[in-house]
Amino acid sequence: MKVLLAAGGSAGHIEPALTLADTLTAEDPGIEVVVVGTDRGIENDLVPPRGYRLETVPATALPRRVNTDLVRAPYRVGVSVRAVSKLLSDEAPDVVVGFGGYVALPAYLAARRRGIPLVVHEANAHAGIANRVGARLTEWVAQAVPGSIKQAATIGMPMRKEIRELAHASPELRRTMAMAAREHFNLAQQAPTLLVFGGSLGARHINETMEQAQRQFAAQGVQILHITGAQGQGLTSAWPPMRQSNEPAYVSVPYVHDMHRAFAAADLVVCRAGATTCAELSALGIPAIYVPLPIGNGEQVLNAQPLIAAGGGVIVNDADLNATDLVARVIGILADTDGLAQMGSAARSCGVLDADERLADIVRAAATLGRHS
Q: 233 pLDDT exceeds 90?
């Protein structure tokens, strides 16, 4: 079987696609996986190191409002559809699997045109336009949470093997992994540990707030692992902060490839509310302060809502994020040991750990039906 995965533009689209690829090839090493993305997206950094071939096509960003870009959109989509159609002709995959984003819509249209079985997976609580269109073209539609797409099967979010292994670990093994993770990041073993990250697009305001808050956190004895993003958006030339030998650590890194280690080290997380982030933190049972990115169609607020309703985290609007309030919230949560444990249990109650297998079953079924039709 050959599978073409349409996933590009952001890690939120690419990571579940790569997880599916890992699951499919682990069960059948003879399966061939080709990923189609853009030539400028983060997929160029993520896909080849995982051992999969990446083919690129022109990106098609769809406007969210009526403007001149909307007038040009059909032409740009047409260019991308023709490029994907040629790729499908060359590769002859048994099934196309899309995860939304810039390359998904042309892949869906090209697959439908060529009669290739199509599977759509929607990660967010509010489906994007590409997946809303794709869902009309196939019966094979899955979603991470209920309500994204009316006719979709709710299966959860495919997550990396390392995240699933950490989630399945016994309490004793989890403590051992936490100790190893803190040693890896040069963090103290016993100090309360806050993990902070904003992703690639959403790092600026979180970075600015953390730079303003870092002295207050030091005074409260909280050590920080701060993933700033590759560009370090919002940080001044004085970054990273200097620490005295008797102060808790502030570890600043641009990117972490093995996020399971960062999660293992953390008692509490401050982050955006992307679909992958919410799914991984719920599976791991890690409490979080979610600061939804105020762009798009409001999907990040919706992504976090199940966790907030269960008591597994709190939400802070981006416009309300400031250093004084953030420090107070973090200290209040970390100081209540029992409450922190309850938040973790509540988050875990929302977690789904077998989404990769369930999506792989759907892909195999779609491919088999396509071969026999």
A: yes
Q: Which of 292, 10, 287, 257 is CA-nearest to residue 123?
A: 10
Buried b (16+ CB within 10 A) or exposed e, 159-198: bbeebbebbebeeeebeebbeebbeebebeeeebbbbbbb
Q: How far apart are CA 102 and CA 147, in angstroms?
A: 22
158, 323, 364 from 117: Cα distances, Å: 20, 50, 10
Return phi, psi of residue 101, to 5°: 95, -175
The CATH number of domain 2-159+353-372, selected from 3.40.250.10, 3.40.50.2000, 3.40.1190.10, 3.30.565.10: 3.40.50.2000
Confidence at 71, pLDDT banded by 50, 70, 90: very low
Amino acid letter, residue 206: I
Q: What is the pLDDT of residues 131-177, one digit of tens each?
A: 999 999 999 999 999 999 999 999 999 999 999 999 999 999 999 99
Q: Which residues of the chain form CATH 3.40.50.2000?
A: 2-159+353-372, 161-348
CA pair distance 208, 352, nearest whole angstrom: 33
Give the β-pairing of 95-101 and 313-315: unpaired
The CATH number that domain 161-348 falls under is 3.40.50.2000
Per-residue model confidence (pLDDT) at position 67: 46
